[in-house]
Design goal:
single chain, about 110 residues, alpha/beta, Oxidized Rhodanese, domain 1, 4-stranded parallel beta sheet, about 10% strand, globular
Length: about 110
């Protein structure tokens, strides 16, 4: 499966990319991609109605370990999906912004 890097994700976000963040709840509160739709792996099926049919869905997790499996599930649900290498932890280390706290996680 192909992967996107954080630079591609950042450019996509600037252009309205659809991003699913697949953290566990505590990870989402610790920091997630601004504008991403949080969906723990167990809840991916619930976001099916929101998946865009006309563009690629970027899938990110905290460390990059779950995003590949989650992207495969998103593709099985009918959308083009690509995991983001390195996850939000690598994004934070590279200086990409993250939203923090429970309110941010609930609003995404």
């Amino acid at each position: 499966m192909r992967e996107a890097d954080l630079t591609v994700l950042a450019a996509g976000l600037a252009n309205g990319a659809f991003v699913i963040d697949v953290p566990e709840p505590d990870e989402c509160r610790a920091g997630h991609v601004p504008g991403a739709r949080p969906a723990p792996p167990s809840a991916l099926g619930a976001v099916v109605s929101a998946l865009p049919g006309d563009r690629t869905v970027s899938v990110i997790c905290a460390s990059g370990s779950r995003s590949g499996r989650a992207a495969e599930r998103v593709e099985a649900l009918g959308a083009d999906a690509v995991p983001v290498a390195g996850g939000t932890a690598a994004g934070a280390r590279a200086g990409h912004p993250l939203d923090h706290g429970a309110a941010a996680a609930e609003s995404a």
